[in-house]
Write a structure and sequence with these properties.
Layout (H helix, E strand, L loop, with lengths): L2 E3 L1 H4 L6 E7 L14 H15 L4 E7 H4 L5 H10 L12 H7 L9 E8 L5 E7 L4 E7 L7 H15 L5 H9 E6 L4 H6 L20 H13 L3 E7 L3 E3 L8 E4 L11 H21 L3 E3 L9 H8 L2 E7 L9 H19 L9 H4 L4 E3 L2 E6 L2 E3 L6 E2 L1 E8 L4 E9 L6 E6 L4 E4 L15 E4 L8 E5 L5
Helix pairs in contact: 4-12, 6-12, 10-12
Length: about 475
């Protein structure tokens, strides 16, 4: 069943319902929950086929929200599943591994690969172009070397553009109306080490003003030569919550400010409409796990400067989903976000898009630490107990690995994702440098019932916990 609004009498109905035309044929049920099984979706298919019957043409009352399903949620998930590039099952991969995984797709005559230049250490920085339309779209990912979720998504989108059949109307439409230039892995030297900065320790996203790095110069140059109409700044983020008490953020969006006043000129307003379309497309899957990034003007950052240079730019931050340590589900949802954005741009719907879906998102609230151990007495070898809270962060917050010490002392008011009540317990710390524990060093602590190292153990954290 394909449900479409019936314009002549749609407005006559109330209470959130619309009259829809049920055409003969199957229907892909709308799976609004990541955790729903295919079996549940198939049950919905069977229900709609029974409702339509074999007569071919009946009238159904369906909820308005279900009848109006904007592009491109189902299309994006289909692309993610059918054109998934092999060899990118984990977030950490090298420059060579990435481009080797794309070797087949890049042989397509639908795709153009351009070597834009080289990183500090001489690794190629490439642009992949799909489409030849009049509207230009520039995307760049992994300018921070340890932020690879969207780099995987771009690989799948490239494979789709390269090998989807001619009958794929969405691909044909986008290719006709847009010129899409993708720069995956802008920071290949950082990706090689899986670190944020480039090979000389510079954060490329703070190099828009000086363009002192080769990677920054390449990004500025490709934007200028393309005179990009739209831009997508693709990042990963650590632990953030949706608002004060919301769940972990999976996707954060931003139409960055172009000036200190955070004014809404036409360039930024177009980005706002695109961001709203993305939020609408992702809402069935993420619901309360989306947030709006802080729009304070950052004069050194590329996103803000792109907006000022005339490119309507949207920031997409891939955060954290439960049970998605390698961000494979976020890889899929980024495809939904980007195809929805492309279609909005191709149809020029951004001008008419209601922005409430973006404007009403809760703020992307930063969390100081992953864990706060509060109320215990710290015990170091050779020293008496001292009342001290311990803040802990992880090297990889998505995977929850590599715990490291943060602040130690009176941490009342410090915000953490999880707080461990250690009242009445003694926190025995492993031997640190010169008998001390220092901020940034690996955590090795054991909570015991008493100050004696042989007293009853309650819990431990860290591989060398005493």
């Amino acid at each position: 069943m394909v449900a479409r609004p019936f314009p002549a009498i749609k407005g006559a109905l109330s209470d959130g319902f619309t009259l829809a035309l049920c055409l003969s044929g199957g229907n892909r049920g709308r799976n609004s929950d990541i955790e729903k099984s295919n079996r549940e979706a198939n049950m919905l298919n069977r229900f709609t086929r029974i409702a339509c019957g074999s007569a071919g043409l009946v009238l159904l009352l369906v909820p308005l929200a279900q009848a109006q399903q904007p592009c491109c949620r189902s299309e994006g998930l289909e692309v993610a599943d059918l054109y998934r590039v092999e060899g990118l099952d984990e977030r950490r991969f090298t420059h060579a591994e990435y481009w080797e995984s794309l070797a087949t797709a890049l042989r397509s005559d639908r795709i153009q690969v351009t070597r834009l230049g080289e990183s500090v250490e001489g690794r190629a920085i490439n642009a992949v172009t799909a489409g030849s339309g009049p509207t230009t779209v520039l995307l760049w990912s992994q300018m921070h070397g340890d932020e690879s979720a969207a780099t995987m998504s771009l690989a799948d989108i490239i494979a789709w553009f390269a090998s989807a059949p001619e009958s794929d109307r969405l691909r044909a439409r986008l290719a006709e109306r847009l010129t899409i230039v993708m720069v995956p892995m802008l920071n290949p030297d950082g990706a090689e080490r899986f670190i944020r900065e480039n090979a000389v320790g510079v954060d490329i996203n703070r190099d828009a003003r000086r363009t002192a790095t080769p990677e920054g110069r390449i990004l500025k140059s490709v934007r200028d030569s393309l005179q990009a109409d739209f831009g997508f700044n693709l990042h990963d983020q650590g632990i953030h919550t949706a608002g004060e008490d919301g769940p972990l953020v999976a996707i954060a969006l931003l139409a960055p400010a172009a000036d200190e006043e955070r004014s809404w000129g036409p360039v930024r307003q177009r980005a706002r409409g695109v961001a709203a379309a993305i939020a609408t497309a992702l809402e069935p899957d993420l619901e309360d796990r989306m947030a709006r990034y802080d729009d304070a003007y950052a004069p050194r950052a590329f996103g803000d400067n792109m907006q000022a240079w005339g490119t309507s730019t949207v920031l997409i931050e891939s955060g954290i989903l439960p049970n998605d340590r390698q961000k494979q589900e976020l890889r899929r949802l980024n495809i939904v976000a980007l195809l929805s954005a492309f279609e909005t741009i191709a149809s020029e719907r951004y001008a008419d898009e209601a922005t409430a879906a973006y404007d009403s998102l809760p703020m992307n609230r930063s969390v100081d630490y992953s864990i706060l151990v509060q109320g215990g007495d710290l015990v170091l070898e050779g020293a008496g107990p001292i009342r001290a809270d311990i803040a802990i962060d992880f090297d990889d917050s998505a995977a929850g690995t590599g715990p490291r010490y943060g602040e130690i002392g009176d941490l009342e008011g410090v915000v953490a994702l999880d707080t461990v009540n250690a009242s009445g317990l003694f926190i025995h710390a492993g031997p640190g440098e010169e008998g001390m524990i220092r901020r940034g060093t690996p955590v090795a602590i054991t909570a015991r019932r008493g100050p004696d190292p042989e007293s009853q153990k309650v819990w431990a954290l860290g591989t060398d916990a005493p």
